[in-house]
Amino acid sequence: MPDHVVKLIYSYSIINFFFMLTSKDIEFFITIAASRSLAAAARKMNVTPPGVSQRLQQIERKLGVVLAERNARSISLTAEGELLARQGQHILTELENLQQDVSDAKQAISGSLKIVSPLGLGISHIGPLVAEFQRRYPAINVELNLSDAPKWSAHHSPDIMLYIGHLEDSSLKRVVLAKNRRLLLASPAYIQSAPNLNHPRDLAHHRCIALRENDEDATMWRFTDRTNLQTLSVRIAPVLSSNVGQVTKNWCLSGQGIIQRSEWDVRSEIQSGALTELIPGYRLADADIVALMSSDRFRRPGKITVFLGFLQQYLPARLNEDQAGFPENATGQPQLL
């Protein structure tokens, strides 16, 4: 349930003895509360002072309380009047927001949606998910651009940029779509001919392969000891490096050295025995799959919110190889960070 709806219900519970009032009644009283006298309120509303006095009395009779003490020249709100003025304004604001959201929802899932995704993730998972999303919402047109080094540009920004890992730019809004575990890997052929590897520091004696993507330091590999949870960082000297993940993976498969890759990207190779996880007692730093967007797009719900909720619901299942179709009426709201 949206936050503003929760707040609206909460506000009504606080002033539940006002339940007989209409929004027009609340607007009327807020105008009175902001005026120094009934005559001043009458001028603001372009009505006669007796008309203002009569309607105020009607509202007070509805509630069974006195809202304002009045004399010939001024008015003074009672405690109940102060409560109605304060909480009434809050309710009107939330009602306006709710009406706007309902209006937006009518047109939410239409128009265009521009997405940028890492290449490997996009080919394997985002592409099929985008196709399914568009099938469900045929009034929307989706443009999916793939890159192994997606960049955010304020002048040419997409609606959503999918990203793996940590981004320094704190001005962008971030939504976690799926947890992403990284593994240290090598082929059996490499392991057979290479020195022993029992600790991350032993990597200094091995052939390491670096993936240079995003703005991350590709030569700093970070580990956590699963036993005592101590962290350590190891600076590698890569013998091979590339900005394309599939290239580094192919090098590793051919016995050229050690890589770190997302578990979802190498699961089949591990199951077939083509790749082997190394030093499993040490966990590599995770790299969550996140959606990034500018603040103005983040504030508007509609198609972006629905698409993010869709990804949060189905992307983790695909990454874990649970791809047994899509429930026809599934919905989801993203958990925004």
Oligomer: single chain
* Rg calculated over all Cα atoms: 30 Å
Q: What portion of residues is helical? A: 40-55%
Number of helices: 11
How would you state the average pLDDT, rounded? 83
CATH topology of the largest domain: Arc Repressor Mutant, subunit A
| Unreliable parts | 327-337
Number of domains: 3
CATH architecture of the largest domain: Orthogonal Bundle
CATH class of the largest domain: Mainly Alpha
Provide the CATH superfamily of the largest domain: Winged helix-like DNA-binding domain superfamily/Winged helix DNA-binding domain
SS strand fraction: 15-25%
Order of helices and strands: HHHHEEHEHEEEEHEEEEHEHEEEHH
Number of strands: 15
Question: What general form does the structure show?
Answer: elongated
- The structure class reads alpha+beta
Termini separation comes to 16 Å
| Sheet with the most strands: spatial strand order | 4-3-5-15-6
The largest sheet is: 5 strands, mixed
